[in-house]
Amino acid sequence: MGSIRMGHCLSLIICVLLLLKAEGISVSISFVENAVTKGAVCLDGSPPAYHFDKGFGAGINNWIVHVEGGGWCNNVTTCLDRRDTRLGSSKKMDGVVSFSGFFSNKQKFNPDFYDWNRIKVRYCDGASFTGDVEAVDPATNLHFRGSRVFVAVIEELLAKGMKNAQNVIFSGCSAGGLTTILLCDRFRGLLPTGAKVKCLSDAGYFINVKDVSGASHIEEFYSQVVKTHGSAKNLPLSCTSRLSPGLCFFPQNVASQINTPIFFINAAYDSWQIKNILAPGVADPHGQWHDCKLDIKKCSSSQLSIMQGFRNDFMKALTAVGNSPSKGTFIDACYAHCQTGMQETWLRNDSPLLANTTIAKAVGDWFYDRKPFHQTDCTYPCNPTCHNRVFDDNNSRV
User: Considering the domain 25-376, what is its CATH architecture?
Assistant: First the structure.
């Protein structure tokens, strides 16, 4: 009986692996070697990196430039913690990553963008590509040069064919989704004037709310990020001219001023924000939120009530986007974070739906001007199509 059960398990594992292989493709890393001479480097001084899968056929002059996520570092101590990891050094990055979902090269899995040039830009500066401090302390060897990295990567891609671009999407997930919001107009300015350029932020709409202890944890944290990295001069002037630079790290304070068309995909119950903004460990010393943060089904009624309050705050912050057809929103009621890069949430038979529409269809319709999309889900647990994340203790914290 045991051997039969074991054989069944192995068959399931093989099936899952084959499915993943069918859905994803492996893409090798590239380094922007000439960026080092410009000081456009990761936290440890190593060159920036990206993964590039070339377009083909009708998509040869269409480009997706996507920035990966990975949080932020707000002082010398936390930046040193990142410096010798993949989030601070290209020497520590995987040489190959998998492309699926929004980055798939198969029409079945990605009908509107499968034949485009698809790039994933690695994240190694710790401030969503906004920082630029000239001085480097020899004691730490920390380089705060995210803004230079951003320009160096774009210049390399322009030289590799993006100068002939007809259609371009600048996208990102999490901290990369915030990059997309903060630098959307700047990115547009670096592209050919004749190109159709739009931005796409996936799980990048971080909101300014107090945590469960009543402290302004994320506001203070973002202020420290901006100060440490010298980000103020690279944040949208439309915001810094009226608010303190730290507040201009919040999308709700810049979204209304973005001129380039932009689409926001976000879970109203964003799992990263629930874990790190609403109920960070520092605000929950006795771990009362521990199980709830790992699995929303384990939340108590009082915790769910607080999370509904978070959703209300999120919806208020989202009003800054407005309802222009040039902007789009797909705000589902899922406990999730980043939904474009995984096939299961981008486009599959069981993908999350809003207005009976997948994320892939909503984004495609919006980009090609087939149909505007502004949809907000009902409250949890109303949407049976949600893929709610369940975490383990190893990935429960930043």
Answer: 3-Layer(aba) Sandwich (3.40)
